[in-house]
Amino acid sequence: MSFLATTEEIEEIGALHSNPAFLPDHHIDQSLRQIGTVVAIITVVQLVFLQIFRSRLSKGSDQSSAWKSSYQFTNLLVNLFLGVLGIYHYYFTLPRPALTVSEKVEGWESLSIFSDIQIGYQLWALPVGYFFVGETSGMMFHHVQVVVVGCLSAFFWNGFRYVTPFFYGLIEISSVPLSVMNYFKTRPELIKERPTMYTVVRLIFSVVFLTVRVVMWVPNMFDWLKTCGILCYTCDNASCYAGLGLSMLAGFGLTVLQMVWASKIVEGLLKAAAGGGKKKKSAEDNSEKKD
């Protein structure tokens, strides 16, 4: 991975401005239909889960736990689907590295399904997360940023669809154990009943998150920012600068979020390790006293 762009790369990427701004109308219409379909399907799935969890509540119980549980299980299914689909395309269908620099920018229209699913997913998550689940401001910010970069891939000719199996697919596999972990958190009694299982889920989540959203994310995002930066640098009008600049800002913002979350995970792992060491030392001290 080169940190500096060559003259050939700048010229090749700059030449892509001769492409139309938007994908053909029929493709955009198809993407809009697919986004709407995704929103509808996810909504139905979540409502089914909601009824299941509501039926298990006693009369007069707080409904918020049912909303949170249905939200988490819906997230689990969507993220599992995206993660598996992303892994398949990332490792088995795409030439890696890309054959040419321009391939990172244009083409791969069939992969816009990833951006369509992600946009629909985030459009569902925004209102449900805000009004019914109480999502953090960081997560709401994340949903908006994904919609911004998703629109670039879904509707624009130079849409960087080559990277969508990774950024919109593969990385979501880390959210599968996260959904399970969050379900445990909504039911503290489960943590008490199955502490070992909860610990294992947390460990799996930590390892997978740090692998895909730090170790793999950083070089992939750097390469995307570099390529998008060249395309932005060679723009010849204000709307081009604004659109690509906004996408780069969203990509950078998503990277900052990953690093913030990663730092919290590492901090938690260190605390857990330190706590385990203290418990072990305490047990040894007690054993010595008994002796």
UniProtKB/TrEMBL annotation:
Highest taxon in the source lineage: Eukaryota
Keyword tags: Membrane, Transmembrane, Transmembrane helix
Coiled-coil region: none
Q: Which GO terms describe its biological process?
A: lipid homeostasis
- Show the stretches that span the lipid bilayer: 32-53, 73-91, 140-160, 166-184, 196-218, 238-261
Q: Which InterPro entries match?
A: TLCD
Give the protein name, as stated in the record.
Answer: TLC domain-containing protein
Query: What organism is recorded for this protein?
Result: Odontella aurita
Name the lineage.
Answer: Eukaryota, Sar, Stramenopiles, Ochrophyta, Bacillariophyta
